[in-house]
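Reply to dn_fold:

You asked what the input looked like. This is it:
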Amino acid sequence: MMKTISVLGSGWLGLPLAQNLKESGFSIKASTTSPERLSLLEQVGAEPFLVNIENLSNEVDGFLKSDILIINITSKNIDAFRELIAKIEESSIQKVIFISSTSVYKSCNKTVSESDHNLLTESPLRIIEELFQNSQKFNTTIIRFGGLIGYSRNPGRFFAGGKTLRDPDGRVNLIHRDDCIGIIHKVIEKQAWGETFNGCADTHPTKREFYSKAASAIGLEIKQFGSNETPFKIVSNEKVKSLLGYKFIHSNLMKIY
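and this is what came back:
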Protein backbone atom coordinates (compact mmCIF):
# COMPACT_ATOMS: atom_id res chain seq x y z
CA MET A 1 0.00 0.00 0.00
CA MET A 2 1.28 3.46 -0.91
CA LYS A 3 2.53 5.34 2.14
CA THR A 4 1.39 8.87 2.86
CA ILE A 5 4.12 11.29 3.91
CA SER A 6 3.50 14.72 5.40
CA VAL A 7 6.25 17.31 4.93
CA LEU A 8 6.11 20.09 7.53
CA GLY A 9 7.83 23.07 5.95
CA SER A 10 8.06 23.55 2.19
CA GLY A 11 10.81 26.07 1.65
CA TRP A 12 14.14 25.75 -0.13
CA LEU A 13 14.56 22.10 0.92
CA GLY A 14 11.00 21.06 1.70
CA LEU A 15 9.40 21.91 -1.63
CA PRO A 16 11.81 19.93 -3.85
CA LEU A 17 11.74 17.15 -1.23
CA ALA A 18 7.95 16.95 -1.50
CA GLN A 19 8.19 16.88 -5.30
CA ASN A 20 10.88 14.20 -5.22
CA LEU A 21 8.89 11.99 -2.85
CA LYS A 22 5.77 12.42 -4.99
CA GLU A 23 7.71 11.36 -8.09
CA SER A 24 8.93 8.32 -6.14
CA GLY A 25 5.35 7.14 -5.69
CA PHE A 26 4.39 8.42 -2.26
CA SER A 27 1.19 10.28 -1.50
CA ILE A 28 2.34 13.68 -0.22
CA LYS A 29 0.90 16.32 2.06
CA ALA A 30 2.93 19.51 2.46
CA SER A 31 2.57 22.53 4.68
CA THR A 32 3.35 26.22 4.48
CA THR A 33 2.69 29.21 6.72
CA SER A 34 2.05 31.44 3.68
CA PRO A 35 -1.33 31.25 1.88
CA GLU A 36 0.31 32.51 -1.32
CA ARG A 37 2.51 29.37 -1.44
CA LEU A 38 -0.39 26.89 -1.37
CA SER A 39 -0.55 26.82 -5.18
CA LEU A 40 3.17 25.93 -5.33
CA LEU A 41 2.50 22.84 -3.24
CA GLU A 42 -0.29 21.81 -5.58
CA GLN A 43 2.01 22.29 -8.58
CA VAL A 44 4.43 19.64 -7.27
CA GLY A 45 1.57 17.21 -6.65
CA ALA A 46 1.24 17.66 -2.89
CA GLU A 47 -1.97 18.16 -0.95
CA PRO A 48 -1.48 21.65 0.55
CA PHE A 49 -2.04 22.66 4.17
CA LEU A 50 -1.60 25.88 6.14
CA VAL A 51 0.22 24.91 9.34
CA ASN A 52 2.00 27.20 11.79
CA ILE A 53 3.22 25.30 14.86
CA GLU A 54 3.24 28.51 16.90
CA ASN A 55 -0.48 28.91 16.29
CA LEU A 56 -1.91 25.46 15.59
CA SER A 57 -5.34 25.31 13.98
CA ASN A 58 -7.67 22.39 13.31
CA GLU A 59 -6.09 22.07 9.88
CA VAL A 60 -3.16 20.29 11.47
CA ASP A 61 -5.38 17.27 12.19
CA GLY A 62 -5.86 16.56 8.49
CA PHE A 63 -2.21 17.23 7.79
CA LEU A 64 -1.21 14.59 10.36
CA LYS A 65 -3.37 11.85 8.83
CA SER A 66 -0.29 10.18 7.39
CA ASP A 67 2.15 7.34 8.01
CA ILE A 68 5.37 9.38 8.10
CA LEU A 69 6.01 12.98 9.11
CA ILE A 70 9.11 14.90 7.99
CA ILE A 71 9.74 18.05 10.03
CA ASN A 72 11.77 20.63 8.18
CA ILE A 73 11.21 24.04 9.78
CA THR A 74 13.52 26.56 11.41
CA SER A 75 11.49 27.24 14.56
CA LYS A 76 13.27 26.70 17.88
CA ASN A 77 10.12 27.32 19.95
CA ILE A 78 10.26 24.52 22.53
CA ASP A 79 6.71 25.05 23.83
CA ALA A 80 5.30 25.05 20.29
CA PHE A 81 7.04 21.76 19.60
CA ARG A 82 5.61 20.29 22.80
CA GLU A 83 2.14 21.12 21.51
CA LEU A 84 2.93 19.69 18.09
CA ILE A 85 4.20 16.45 19.64
CA ALA A 86 0.96 16.11 21.60
CA LYS A 87 -0.94 16.42 18.31
CA ILE A 88 1.32 13.86 16.62
CA GLU A 89 0.74 11.43 19.49
CA GLU A 90 -3.02 11.67 18.86
CA SER A 91 -2.60 11.09 15.12
CA SER A 92 -1.92 8.14 12.81
CA ILE A 93 1.75 9.13 12.45
CA GLN A 94 4.02 6.19 13.26
CA LYS A 95 7.40 7.49 12.11
CA VAL A 96 8.99 10.94 12.24
CA ILE A 97 12.09 12.35 10.55
CA PHE A 98 13.23 15.48 12.37
CA ILE A 99 15.65 17.66 10.40
CA SER A 100 18.16 19.07 12.84
CA SER A 101 21.59 20.68 12.49
CA THR A 102 25.22 19.88 13.20
CA SER A 103 25.18 23.07 15.28
CA VAL A 104 24.11 20.86 18.22
CA TYR A 105 27.75 19.75 18.50
CA LYS A 106 30.25 21.83 20.41
CA SER A 107 33.24 23.18 18.50
CA CYS A 108 36.20 21.29 19.93
CA ASN A 109 38.89 21.27 17.20
CA LYS A 110 38.34 17.59 16.45
CA THR A 111 36.05 15.15 14.65
CA VAL A 112 32.62 14.56 16.20
CA SER A 113 30.19 11.70 15.56
CA GLU A 114 26.67 10.72 16.57
CA SER A 115 27.97 8.78 19.57
CA ASP A 116 29.69 11.83 21.09
CA HIS A 117 26.86 12.68 23.49
CA ASN A 118 29.29 14.55 25.74
CA LEU A 119 29.94 17.01 22.92
CA LEU A 120 26.31 18.08 22.51
CA THR A 121 25.20 21.58 23.44
CA GLU A 122 22.25 22.39 25.70
CA SER A 123 20.69 24.44 22.90
CA PRO A 124 16.94 24.72 22.21
CA LEU A 125 17.44 22.56 19.12
CA ARG A 126 19.00 19.77 21.16
CA ILE A 127 16.15 19.98 23.69
CA ILE A 128 13.64 19.68 20.83
CA GLU A 129 15.50 16.64 19.49
CA GLU A 130 15.13 14.97 22.89
CA LEU A 131 11.41 15.76 23.06
CA PHE A 132 10.89 13.81 19.85
CA GLN A 133 13.19 10.98 20.84
CA ASN A 134 11.45 10.58 24.20
CA SER A 135 7.94 10.07 22.82
CA GLN A 136 6.60 6.55 23.29
CA LYS A 137 3.90 6.97 20.64
CA PHE A 138 6.05 7.22 17.51
CA ASN A 139 9.62 6.52 16.35
CA THR A 140 11.86 9.47 15.46
CA THR A 141 14.99 9.55 13.36
CA ILE A 142 17.10 12.68 13.72
CA ILE A 143 19.11 13.93 10.73
CA ARG A 144 21.66 16.61 11.60
CA PHE A 145 22.52 18.40 8.38
CA GLY A 146 25.51 20.67 7.98
CA GLY A 147 25.14 24.00 6.21
CA LEU A 148 22.85 23.67 3.20
CA ILE A 149 24.26 24.62 -0.20
CA GLY A 150 23.49 24.10 -3.89
CA TYR A 151 21.27 25.65 -6.56
CA SER A 152 20.41 29.22 -5.47
CA ARG A 153 22.49 28.90 -2.31
CA ASN A 154 26.07 29.86 -3.09
CA PRO A 155 27.55 31.01 0.23
CA GLY A 156 30.14 33.04 -1.67
CA ARG A 157 27.47 35.72 -2.13
CA PHE A 158 27.85 36.71 1.53
CA PHE A 159 31.07 38.48 0.60
CA ALA A 160 29.59 40.76 -2.06
CA GLY A 161 29.94 43.76 0.24
CA GLY A 162 33.54 43.16 1.20
CA LYS A 163 32.67 41.25 4.35
CA THR A 164 35.56 39.81 6.38
CA LEU A 165 35.89 36.01 6.48
CA ARG A 166 36.24 35.12 10.14
CA ASP A 167 38.21 32.09 11.36
CA PRO A 168 39.59 31.38 7.87
CA ASP A 169 41.48 28.26 8.98
CA GLY A 170 38.40 26.68 10.56
CA ARG A 171 36.82 23.71 8.77
CA VAL A 172 33.43 23.68 7.05
CA ASN A 173 30.64 21.11 7.47
CA LEU A 174 28.34 21.52 4.48
CA ILE A 175 25.95 19.42 2.39
CA HIS A 176 24.36 19.84 -1.03
CA ARG A 177 20.57 19.80 -1.23
CA ASP A 178 20.65 16.78 -3.54
CA ASP A 179 22.31 14.77 -0.77
CA CYS A 180 19.86 16.02 1.86
CA ILE A 181 17.01 14.60 -0.21
CA GLY A 182 18.99 11.43 -0.93
CA ILE A 183 19.63 10.74 2.76
CA ILE A 184 15.99 11.30 3.69
CA HIS A 185 15.02 8.82 0.96
CA LYS A 186 17.48 6.27 2.32
CA VAL A 187 16.11 6.52 5.86
CA ILE A 188 12.62 5.75 4.54
CA GLU A 189 13.84 3.02 2.17
CA LYS A 190 15.95 1.29 4.83
CA GLN A 191 13.33 1.80 7.57
CA ALA A 192 16.10 3.26 9.73
CA TRP A 193 13.90 4.49 12.55
CA GLY A 194 15.00 5.55 16.01
CA GLU A 195 18.43 6.55 14.72
CA THR A 196 20.50 9.72 14.60
CA PHE A 197 22.52 10.59 11.49
CA ASN A 198 24.93 13.33 10.54
CA GLY A 199 24.55 14.66 7.02
CA CYS A 200 27.55 16.46 5.56
CA ALA A 201 29.91 15.98 2.63
CA ASP A 202 33.06 13.85 2.83
CA THR A 203 35.43 16.79 2.60
CA HIS A 204 36.01 19.56 5.14
CA PRO A 205 38.15 22.23 3.50
CA THR A 206 39.12 25.35 5.39
CA LYS A 207 36.78 28.33 5.21
CA ARG A 208 39.51 30.16 3.30
CA GLU A 209 39.66 27.43 0.63
CA PHE A 210 35.95 26.82 0.25
CA TYR A 211 34.49 30.32 0.47
CA SER A 212 37.20 31.78 -1.77
CA LYS A 213 36.30 29.28 -4.48
CA ALA A 214 32.56 29.74 -4.00
CA ALA A 215 32.95 33.52 -4.24
CA SER A 216 35.16 33.23 -7.30
CA ALA A 217 32.47 31.17 -9.04
CA ILE A 218 30.19 34.23 -9.02
CA GLY A 219 32.90 36.76 -9.83
CA LEU A 220 33.73 37.86 -6.29
CA GLU A 221 36.97 37.93 -4.36
CA ILE A 222 37.33 37.73 -0.58
CA LYS A 223 39.87 40.38 0.33
CA GLN A 224 39.62 40.48 4.10
CA PHE A 225 40.47 37.54 6.36
CA GLY A 226 40.07 37.77 10.12
CA SER A 227 41.97 35.96 12.81
CA ASN A 228 41.26 32.43 14.03
CA GLU A 229 39.42 33.24 17.25
CA THR A 230 37.03 30.33 17.75
CA PRO A 231 37.41 26.54 17.69
CA PHE A 232 35.97 24.43 14.89
CA LYS A 233 34.69 20.88 14.49
CA ILE A 234 34.75 18.25 11.77
CA VAL A 235 31.47 16.35 11.58
CA SER A 236 31.81 12.69 10.63
CA ASN A 237 29.41 11.24 8.04
CA GLU A 238 30.60 7.64 8.43
CA LYS A 239 27.37 6.37 10.00
CA VAL A 240 25.14 7.50 7.15
CA LYS A 241 27.44 5.67 4.73
CA SER A 242 27.88 2.50 6.76
CA LEU A 243 24.37 2.02 8.17
CA LEU A 244 22.34 3.36 5.25
CA GLY A 245 24.82 2.52 2.51
CA TYR A 246 24.44 6.07 1.26
CA LYS A 247 26.73 7.26 -1.54
CA PHE A 248 27.11 11.00 -1.75
CA ILE A 249 26.29 12.75 -5.01
CA HIS A 250 28.44 15.75 -4.06
CA SER A 251 31.07 14.24 -1.81
CA ASN A 252 33.80 16.81 -2.57
CA LEU A 253 32.79 20.35 -1.66
CA MET A 254 35.61 21.86 -3.69
CA LYS A 255 34.08 20.42 -6.89
CA ILE A 256 30.65 21.98 -6.43
CA TYR A 257 31.66 25.49 -7.52
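Helices lie at 14-23, 38-43, 59-63, 78-89, 124-134, 177-190, 207-217, 238-244.
Hope that clears it up.
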